[in-house]
Amino acid sequence: MKHPLQPLETDSQGDIRFVGNAIVDLLLSTSKLDLYDLHRMVARDNYSVEDYAQLMMLLGYSLGGFLELSCSDVCADEVETARHEFKGQLIAQLVSK
Question: Which residues contact 3 (CB under 8 A, 6 or more apart)?
Answer without folding.
Answer: 50, 51, 53, 54, 57
